[in-house]
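From the methods appendix. Each design record in this collection lists the tokenized structure first, followed by the designed amino acid sequence. Records were kept in a plain field format so they could be parsed without special tools. The example shown here is representative of the layout used throughout.

RECORD:
FOLD TOKENS (242 positions):
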């Protein structure tokens, strides 16, 4: 479980987070949504220990977070792929750095590339891939390390509408097959409602509302009118003057 207590983060005189409190149960998903500059990325980075809070703390499974955890996977907006390595080697590299031997790494790389439907691109370089393919490689590279907590910053923001849905489906299916704790930062209301069991709505430097998502994981969600009504409820909270 993730437990965030009275978190405060400033960049110089800019207050990015103030008195933020949040609990996310183990192996559940949570989407963080809010306008640009409200502190979403700062909150995600605090959970990943990529930045240290000025005040307050983050506990993961009861342990106070003081350093980057081995079992936390992070997928950032720009994918972070190594342009001089092939798809195969981008994923393998992460495993070799983690201490897997070559045979173990190769076995895992093949499994994950097949699972994500990118095995056929294994010899290509990131520069030869579409945005959606790059994102799948980035997801594969992180998932190969079998994290128990996955943090994603705008996983589909750079993608067109169809590819966005495809990536969201892949993420949801991966979660359904093997639940881990999944935290997604997004600007996109549909993405939040699709990927978040819990929807955290932020406004300038704080959380203004938390919603449980009764539609999470349901079949044919995008054909369900109630799903879009739920999206409208989220929208009201984002646009409400508080
Ligand atoms: N390195 C930094 N130095 C100074 N100010 C920063 C830095 N990073 C973020 N900020 C400021 O902190 C506030 C929160 O930024 P953050 O990136 O967390 O917001 P966000 O909600 O993720 O924004 P976006 O949706 O545009 O990515 C903003 O006002 C931003 O300008």
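DESIGN:
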């Amino acid at each position: 479980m993730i437990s965030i207590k009275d978190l405060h983060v400033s960049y110089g005189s800019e207050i990015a987070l103030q008195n933020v409190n949040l609990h996310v149960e183990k192996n559940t998903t949570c989407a963080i949504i809010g306008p640009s500059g409200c502190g979403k990325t700062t909150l995600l980075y605090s959970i990943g220990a990529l930045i240290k809070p000025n005040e307050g703390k983050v506990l993961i499974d009861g342990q106070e977070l003081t350093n980057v955890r081995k079992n936390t996977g992070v997928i950032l907006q720009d994918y972070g792929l190594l342009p001089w390595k092939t798809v195969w080697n981008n994923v393998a590299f992460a495993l070799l750095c983690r201490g897997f031997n070559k045979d173990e790494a190769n076995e895992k790389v093949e499994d994950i590339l097949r699972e994500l439907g990118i095995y056929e691109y294994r010899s290509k370089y990131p520069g030869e891939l579409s945005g959606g393919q790059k994102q799948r490689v980035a997801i594969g590279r992180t998932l190969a390390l079998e994290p128990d907590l996955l943090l994603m910053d705008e996983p589909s923001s750079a993608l067109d509408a169809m590819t966005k849905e495809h990536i969201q489906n892949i993420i949801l299916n991966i979660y359904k097959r093997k639940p881990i704790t999944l935290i997604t930062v997004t600007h996109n209301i549909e993405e939040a409602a699709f990927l978040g069991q819990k929807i955290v709505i932020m406004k300038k430097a704080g959380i203004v509302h938390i919603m449980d998502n009764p539609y999470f994981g349901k079949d044919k969600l995008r054909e369900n009118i109630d799903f879009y009504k739920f999206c409208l409820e989220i929208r009201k909270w984002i646009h409400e003057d508080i």
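APPENDIX NOTE: The longest strand covers residues 14-24.
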